[in-house]
Each structure stands twice: as C-alpha cells, then as structure tokens.
Amino acid sequence: MLWYTGRRLLQFIPVFLGATLLIYAMVFALPGDPVAALFGDKPVNPQVAAQIRAQYHLDVGFFQQYLYYLKGVVTFDFGKSFSGRPVLEVMQSAFPTTIKLAFMALAVEGILGIGLGLLAGLRRGGFFDGTVLIFSLLIIAIPVFVLGFVLQFVFGVKLGWVNPTVGGNATFANLLLPAFVLGGVSLAYVLRLTRTSVAENLTADFVRTATAKGLSRRRVVTVHVLRNSMIPVVTFLGADLGALMGGAIVTEGIFNIPGVGNALYRAVRAGEAPTVVSIVTVLILVFIVASLLVDLLYAILDPRIRYV
Amino acid sequence: MKRQLSVVTALVAGAALLLSACGSDSKTTSSDSSGPAATGSSAAGTESSAAGSDAGSSSAAPAEATGGVILANGTEPQNPLIPSNTNEVGGGRIIDNIFAKLVYYDAKGETHMEAAESIETTDSKTFTVKLKAGQKFTDGEPVTSASFIDAWNFGADVTNAQLSSYFFDPIEGFADVNYCEKDAGPPDKKGKATCLPAPKAKTMSGLKKVDDTTFTITLTEAQSDFPLRLGYSAFAPLPTSAFKDIKAFGENPVGNGPYMLSGPGSWEHNVKIDLVPNPDYTGDRKPQNGGLTFTFYQAYEAAYSDLQSNLLDVIDGIPPGSLTSYETDLPGRSVNQPAAVFQSFTVPARDPHFSGEEGNLRRQAISMAINRDEITKIIFSGTRTPASDFTSPVIAGWSDSLKGADVLKFNADGAKKAWAAANAISPWDGKFTIAYNSDGGHKEWVDAVSNSIKNTLGIDAEGKPYASFAELRTQVTDRSIEGGFRTGWQADYPSVSNFLGPIYKTGAGSNDGDYSNPEFDKLLGEGSAAKTVEEGNKFYEQAQEILLKELPAIPLWYSNVTGGFSTNVSNVQFGWDSQPIYYAIQKKA
C-alpha cells in the first residue's frame, strides 16, 4: 500500500507539468491585451504599457513566458497579479475560506445524503422513499443561482435569521446557508446513489447470510449493507470535493465569499495567466489527492480490494 | 461496531490529509488577514507606529464622539493604493478619502481649495500654488511643496509605469520623463513592446519649488481650467517614506486626507478596508462620522441584499434586477440622478461610407434614427438621461440648446432623408454593426439601438459582441475594429474640456475614432487659453456645435447614478462623480 501510494504521488509531477502547460496555453490564447484593459476607458500611455508588459514578461513568446512561470514555481514564487500582489498571497487568502466551505458542503451532502438515502433505501417503495425522491428531483432541477438567491432572500433579507452575505466573516454559522446551496445538487445525487445501492445490497447473498447468522438488524444494516453500499458514494464524494472547490463561483458570488471562485473569476477576466494557472493547478492537485484517497478507501471498505 | 469506527476514522484521516495537502501547496496560513500585514516593511512600519501614537494621544476621543462607522460598498482595488496608479472606482474612492489634494470638488462639482491656500495665474500657463501652513501626513511629516512635486514626478516617470501618468501630460517636461527610446506604437501581433522606456530626465522642468509652501507649475500651453483637474486622485501629495518602498506604501498608504487607514492590515484583500478619521486633518471635508468601512462585493446583488437588511449603510449602485423595485424597497432612501458619465458609440471615418460629407450625413441619419427616450425608459428603467450634448448635466457648461442638437432627437423622416442624401453620393452596401463587450451588460441597449436604426432606415443593423472588455479595447486601440463600437467617458474632473479634449482633439489619447478637425482643435485651444472657465465655455460651445455636425461619436445618454442608503444613516448626498459624499454621512444614534 505504501509503495502504491508513493507511485501515485510520483504521478503528480507529469500531471503538474502537463496541466500547467495546457492551462497556460489556454489563458495565453484568450483574446485581447490584458494591459490595454488595465487602462480602462482612459487613454493608454504606450510608454507605460510597454513598461508593464516588460515587467510581467508579456513581451516575450509563449514558451518563454511559461518557462518564466515554471522557474518561479520551483522557488515557490507563483508570479504576481497585475495589482502587484503575489499570487501565493492571493491563494493564501482565498483557499482557507473555500476549503472550509467545500468541506461543510461535503459534510452536508455526506450526512444528509447518506442518511436520507439509507432510510429511503431501507423503505423502498414507501411514502418516505417517494417523498425523498421527489425532493431530490426538485433540488437537481433548480439551478444553483436560483436556489441561492431564493434562500438568501427568504432567510437573509426577509426572516433575518442569517446574514445575507458572508464577506470577511467566514464563520461556521455564516457559511451554513452557502454550504447547503453549494452542496445541494450533489446532496441529491448522493441520496439517490445511496438509496439504489442500499436497496440492491439488501437482497444480496451476504446480507441474507448475515441475517441467517442471527445478527441484529442494526448490525446487518450498518456493517454489511451500508459499508458495502459506500463504494459508489465515496467515489462520487471524492470527485465532488474538487468540483465543490472550483465550482463555487456562483455560490461565492451570491453570498459574497472571498474564496477561490471569486479569485479565479477576477483573474480570468483580467487575463492574469500566473494567477489562473496557479489556482487551477492547485485545484487539479486537489482532484488527484481526492481520487487517491478514494482508491485507498476502497481497500478499507472492501477488504477484497488490495493494492500492491 | 469496530469496523464502522475504522471507516469513520479513515474518512476523517483522509479529510485531514487532503486539507494538509492543499495547505502545503498554497502555503496556507491560519488567518486571511495576515497577508497584507506580513508584507508590510519599513514604510508600513513607520506609518503604523505614527498612526498608533497619534490616535492614542490626542485624537481618538473626538473621532469617537462624531458617531458610528459608516458601512459602504466597495470593490477590491485593482491596483495598489498609489494615487497615480489608481484609475478605477474601487481604489479611487479610498484614495480620495485618505488624501487631500490641492483642491476638492463639492457635490455640485464646484472646486474648492483643500491643501492649497491659493492657485494663481496671470497667463493660464504658469500657476503659483501656495499651500496652507501646518498640514501634515499621518506619519507626522509636514506637507510641503516637495510632497507634491516629488509625487507628481514619480507619477510621470515612465519607469514607474503608473496608469494615470498621462494626467501630467500638460506639464512642461512631461515628454522627457515619459520618453521611450523607440517610438511606442501599439504592440505588434505577438504583444511585443515596440519601445524601451528610457526617460531623458527624472523630473519635469515645469515644477519648481519656491519655498516650503510655494511652488510653480508651468504648462506647455495655456489651460484656463488646469486648476480644476488638480482634485483628481493622481495629483495627491506623497510623504518621503512612500518612495523608499512604494510597494509597501501601496498596501498601507500614508495620506493627509480626512481619513486614514486604521492601521497596517486594515486593507483585508478582497474583504474590506477600514478608514478612521484623521485627527490632524484641517480641511473642509471634516468627517461627520466615526469612520468608513468599505466592504468589497463581487456583485451589486449581494450588496443590495445587505442594504435591505441594514447591514450596509450606503450603496452606490442598484443591481439591474432591482431597478424596477428599488424605489419601493427603499422608500425615501433611494437616489437616481445624472452623473458625469457620457455614453456614445463611435463610427470612425476610416470606415467605408463614413468619411467626408457622406459620412456626416450617415452619422446624422443614424443618430436621428435612435429613439433615445424610449430606450432609456424601457431598457434602463429611467436610469439614463437622453443626451443633448457631448458633456453631462452635472458639469457647468452643459447645454440642451446647442445649435444642431436636433440630430439627437428621434426623427424618422429626417433620418431617412439624410440617409438618402448620403446614398446619392455613394450607395450604401453591407451591414451596420455596433461592437460591444458582452461581459458588461451592454447587449440589451445595443440590440435596441440597432433595431431602432434598422426599422427607421431599413438597413441591416445589429450588435457585434466581443467576449471581453480586453478584447474590445485591444481592437479599438490597434484600430483593427470595423464598424461602430461602444464608447463612453467618465469625467476625471468637472470641466467641459475634459469631455472634449481627450476624446476628439487631433491625436488625443482617447480619440479612438481618429477624429480630426483643425477648426475644432483651434476652438479647444482658445477655450483653454481663456482667462476664466466661463469664458472658455463659450469657445467649447462653438466646438461642440462642430461635433454635432460631424458626430465623431454619436451621443446616446448620460448615465445616472443610482443608489440607496439604510435607515441607520442620514445626510446622504451623491457628488458629481457618482460617489456618495462619504465624510458628510451621519449615523443615527
């Protein structure tokens, strides 16, 4: 297992190089001159524009720019945004909030999704099952920004139970509503995955055996049914973590959360290659680590799976 | 149960591992706000100690007595808070509150002395500035002639790459400090610079210190309204500590204005900035509140939600979705008034069919084919005012009765006649387009204007979207754009000439349509050389009458400023520059 993990970690290097090159190329291909946009509607001073281009190595070819970037990364210098702020600092302020939000959303999906899914699966075909299924369909069907605005208006503006926006106050209580909105759609998927999986396993041979052995219903359900039903759910949750971190742009916008989505959006609009590439690279790393963890979890959930 | 426990443990351990993995990658630290503070070096250090001692000794108490802190909306400044490098609203409103320039503008756009005692001239070319005695920066350094001269020279020096450097262009010697070895045209297709910055001088010859509180400004040519522009943020003074480490200064600026930063780290990037009253400030913009907190929002929608919950005191824009309801949402607390923003679109004379007499006729026809009243009402819910000239109603010198202003009224018959007359010179072919950036909410009005033109003139007309502002501006700047394109101008200082010179003068910096008319240039020159602003405006009126004939840009409307305030504050007024007069806002007890 250790050897396997090490090998997987080594894969980070080619993935990192490939991903950064690809994203750098994409940002480079964005139309328009980012320096021209810096001046807004005001006259562009060609002398000053030239100076800024030289400062950010925008006056050299694509591969040279990319090599400058790589050279920096080796020394943990991820370049600078146009405002002169180091990209590292931008990430340092954006990631903690988003990580918090993403894990809260993940907890919402995990706890509610698995819990409701398990109950629905155990009572397949019943009233509870039907209600939960309709509820999950509804959540999947509502676009995130509609859900966000409506909940913000109802609970924030009208009822006043929570602050409508989060801002710099990323406390647990303040992030609860955004986390629910962010995790909402995935919650419905987790719920449906768990339900199907549980319902299927209930009729499996090993469950019949366990029941025949005289194990309590509780033990059968938690240890035999639930545990074996978790493999597809864990796969989904693992992949979803990356999606939650990178895909929070809408939620972060609605609730004014100064996180990764916000930083990424601003950087793409400004054409700041170093910022975009660095943030996306970290997100890619999150994806890789999450998928590694999922693979390792398989072995724990199902002892038949072995890694060498 | 044991097995179950191990699953949970594994999950938790996995989560922790993941956290630490991204942590090590992004060098995550515990606190968001530690960033700016950590970067602070010498300048920030001195400021903090000085500010600390000042606030501690004499002044914290009276500042407290003036009332609560006003919560206002803002956006993360695009650039470090250096006055000559701040050219957008997010940073501009902070700069304007923490620096006192020579003059300031009141709500009506009238100019008053602030740091200056007087600005005098006999020929509108050389100005003698006398500073009020006893002013100081919040780090204790006195404000002297050198504070202004050094700051302006820094801003103009091309090696410092300051975005607002062109503001110093009228000053004698600017060309030498903004000099390039090769001529700096637009970059070539690969973005390669065509210029190597190499200033011939480090200081502008037009700035001369007489004594500690007196200096002279010499311009390359006469400009009667030059003092009007001295209230723009680029003309702020800087303390000597700024030049030691301008980067640190930009994070934690030291000013001489009505407010100051509450200390190092008061600028929480992407989150907010806290300003407290500056106890040493002696000018007229005396804070009537306990400070300002600008919370940075990504979108007006979120800010508007906070305003409705009274978690925000004043907002300087209403989100488009709420324009139809904000007056009832905020009874007696909403604002909708014209601002110094002029909107237009430009059809350059280099386009086929748009030069000479034919071009003038076509532009007049297009202008008369646009139903401005209807579009401003329907698309903008009455938050735009149809244009009647090339300036703005909040500027002294604006007019709705210029000769030839009829072309700005909807007139289907006149439009058809003018178009037919142009066709007699050379028949029209092809399609008329208006380019716009689709990331800025322009689609609706561009479509409406195109339809108005299409239906009136019976020609093919449509909008031409560009993905981003950067893309549109690049094509406009390198002149590769075809057809009409959206243009706009927000005045930097309240003067008619600021709406005309930078945009329509031959070779001017924002003359995107390459308009050139010697007679117009001459009138601009005469307006500048006039003894007073009023006299100058007479020449500018004549100049505008030329523009109304040739329409280098087709005026559409003036943007209004929309805004609102909470039930917790009073005395909210919006200035000529669309900004609330922050220092005058009072918090109710």
UniProtKB/TrEMBL annotation, chain A:
Full protein name: ABC transporter permease
Assigned protein family: Belongs to the binding-protein-dependent transport system permease family.
Organism: Nakamurella antarctica
GO cellular component: plasma membrane
This protein's record includes keyword Transmembrane helix: yes
A Pfam family hit: BPD_transp_1
Main location: membrane
Residues annotated as transmembrane: 12-30, 101-120, 132-155, 175-191, 233-255, 275-301
Keyword Lipid metabolism included in the entry's annotation: no
Origin superkingdom: Bacteria
Keywords, ordered alphabetically: Cell membrane, Membrane, Transmembrane, Transmembrane helix, Transport
From TrEMBL, chain B:
Domain Solute-binding protein family residues, every copy: 114-510
Extent of the signal sequence: 1-21
Any one GO BP annotation for this protein: peptide transport
One Pfam family linked to the record: SBP_bac_5
Gene3D superfamilies: Dipeptide-binding Protein, Domain 1 (3.90.76.10), Dipeptide-binding Protein, Domain 3 (3.10.105.10), Periplasmic binding protein-like II (3.40.190.10)
Transmembrane segments: none
Keywords annotated in UniProt: Signal
Family annotation (SUPFAM superfamilies): Periplasmic binding protein-like II (SSF53850)
Region (Disordered): 23-63
UniProt GO molecular function: peptide transmembrane transporter activity
Gene Ontology CC: ATP-binding cassette (ABC) transporter complex; periplasmic space
Keyword Glycosyltransferase: no
This protein's name: ABC transporter substrate-binding protein
